[in-house]
UniProtKB/TrEMBL annotation:
Function description: Member of the two-component regulatory system NreB/NreC involved in the control of dissimilatory nitrate/nitrite reduction in response to oxygen. NreB functions as a direct oxygen sensor histidine kinase which is autophosphorylated, in the absence of oxygen, probably at the conserved histidine residue, and transfers its phosphate group probably to a conserved aspartate residue of NreC. NreB/NreC activates the expression of the nitrate (narGHJI) and nitrite (nir) reductase operons, as well as the putative nitrate transporter gene narT.
Required cofactor names: [4Fe-4S] cluster
Main location (coarse class): cytoplasm
Molecular function terms from GO: 4 iron, 4 sulfur cluster binding; metal ion binding; phosphorelay sensor kinase activity; protein dimerization activity
UniProt enzyme class: transferase
SUPFAM superfamilies in alphabetical order: ATPase domain of HSP90 chaperone/DNA topoisomerase II/histidine kinase, GAF domain-like
Record-annotated Histidine kinase domain positions: 325-442
E.C. no: 2.7.13.3
Keyword hit for Nucleotide-binding: no
Segments of this protein annotated with the region Disordered: 1-25
Species lineage: Bacteria, Pseudomonadati, Thermomicrobiota, Thermomicrobia, Sphaerobacterales
Record protein name field: Oxygen sensor histidine kinase NreB
Organism name: Sphaerobacter thermophilus (strain ATCC 49802 / DSM 20745 / KCCM 41009 / NCIMB 13125 / S 6022)
Length: 456
């Protein structure tokens, strides 16, 4: 009886490599001004005290003693002179402190304004990144901007991607009329639309323009990513349809053609009275029909698991291998790491699933094996999928020369689309091992905030 061991190996799953977002540091102009202010507050009081004390001891006190002794000036007690000098020093110190506090308040106001601008940019980026549908991105961005900006209307007009700098919208986002602002939504040299804001009272300030240009770049990148995602999805659909068509042609269609030929043979044998030979041909057709049925059932299972949205690669492998063991009467063993949630994008998971499905189909059709072992692990940031059987094996180089690829070429192409490699180890009489090694995508989010942070 077939045995399916799908026990999990706890732990061992490495998270995707990546250092994460780099914290935003003060920009050089702001940092230089802050450093200069620190040095002024430290050095100027010390220099002032030194100059004051030197003046009092070297100039004021000798002057008072000399002129008080000659009687040419009214006699001023030394304590009164020191008090006058002290009051003068206090006034100068107060003026200096007031100046420093004014500078600090000015820098604080600018810093708070920058923080508010960055918070607004972050809010728009978060709303734009919440979906991969262009319509959702536009609706959420308009709602967020209407809440953040005191504008009468906020509208995003989408266009087909065009080279930046063409059309009627300046790339610098300059206000085109009083109370109106148009900002291009562009990314990587292509404009994807225009952000339009109108305000009945007052014009948009330079700070507003700077912030809206950064928001335009962020929205342009989000829209471009959504459009690229849609293109990838459409390409995947076309590729999957092509794959199904090829498999139906190579499997079911050829098997039906074979059965039709055999039916003609059986008809001739029955007409000739060769009943025993006809029964043998019918048995051959029955076996062919069983093989075709298994192929179709295997493909339907793979499609159903994918389209039903099975929760991840691990769940798909467990379900598929349980059914595979039941169909083939093979001893199937699964060893799998707990993959972190979202470790692979859905499109990449689909490619890995197809590679595993093709490898297992080859085991069933060609290996004449008693057992198969599937191992899926994460090592040093790479996903490692291994399918190994104890079947008859084959010479990979000879199979390629003779044109019997057994889907190996397709599996290699799928591995390359993941940025990985496919290794095939086999020789006649020693089984086959197929190993996929694909890098897990790194994580990290970056937003264009240079224009905002480089405050003048």
């Amino acid at each position: 009886m077939a045995r399916s061991n799908t026990g999990e190996r706890q732990g061992g799953a490495a998270t995707a490599r990546g250092d994460g977002p780099v914290p935003l540091e003060p920009t050089p102009p702001f940092a230089r001004r802050l450093r200069l202010l620190k040095w002024i507050t430290v050095v100027v009081p010390g220099v002032f005290i030194f100059v004051l004390e030197s003046t009092r001891h070297q100039v004021v006190e000798p002057f008072l003693r000399e002129h008080g002794a000659t009687g040419r000036l009214p006699a001023i007690p030394l304590d009164i002179g020191n008090l006058i000098v002290g009051l003068l020093a206090f006034g100068l110190a107060f003026g200096f402190s007031h100046l420093v506090f004014g500078v600090i308040e000015h820098m604080q106001r600018r810093l708070l304004r920058r923080n508010a601008e960055l918070a607004a940019l972050n809010a728009v980026a978060a709303s734009a990144g919440a979906s991969l549908r262009v319509g959702d991105i536009v609706a959420q961005a308009e709602e967020t901007l209407q809440r953040l900006f005191p504008a009468d209307s906020v509208r995003i007009d989408l266009t087909e991607p065009v080279v930046a700098g063409t059309g009627d919208v300046p790339d610098d986002g300059t206000s085109l009329a009083a109370g109106e602002m148009r900002v291009p939504l562009q990314a990587r040299g292509h404009r994807h639309g225009t952000l339009r804001l109108t305000r009945s009272r007052g014009e948009f300030s330079r700070a507003d323009q700077r912030l809206l240009r950064a928001i335009g770049d962020t929205l342009g990148m989000a829209i471009e990513n959504a459009r690229l995602h849609q293109q990838v999805h459409e390409a995947a659909v076309v590729e999957e349809r092509g794959r199904i068509a090829r498999e139906m042609h190579d499997g079911v269609a050829q098997m039906l053609a074979y059965v039709l030929v055999k039916l003609g043979t059986v008809d001739g044998l029955l007409a000739a009275g060769a009943a025993d030979t006809a029964r043998a041909e019918i048995e051959t057709m029955r076996q062919a029909a069983e093989s075709a049925y298994t192929d179709v059932r295997e493909q339907i299972l793979g499609l159903r698991l994918v389209t039903d949205g099975a929760p991840g690669l691990a769940a798909w492998l467990r379900t598929y291998l349980d059914d595979f063991a039941e169909q083939t009467d093979l001893d199937v063993t699964l060893e799998i790491d707990d993959l972190p949630p979202g470790a692979l994008p859905r499109a990449s998971e689909l490619q890995v699933i197809r590679i595993a499905q093709e490898a297992l189909s080859n085991v069933r059709k060609h290996a004449d094996a008693r057992s198969v072992r599937v191992r899926c692990t994460v090592e040093e940031g790479d996903l490692i999928l291994t399918v190994a059987d104890d079947g008859r094996g084959f010479d990979p180089s000879s199979a390629n020369r003779q044109g019997h690829h057994f889907g190996l070429l397709t599996m290699r192409e799928r591995a390359e689309s993941l940025g990985g490699t496919l290794q095939i180890e086999s020789q006649p009489g020693s089984g086959t091992r197929i190993t996929l090694r694909a890098p897990l995508p790194t994580t990290g989010v970056s937003h264009r905030v240079a224009d905002l942070a480089a405050a003048g």
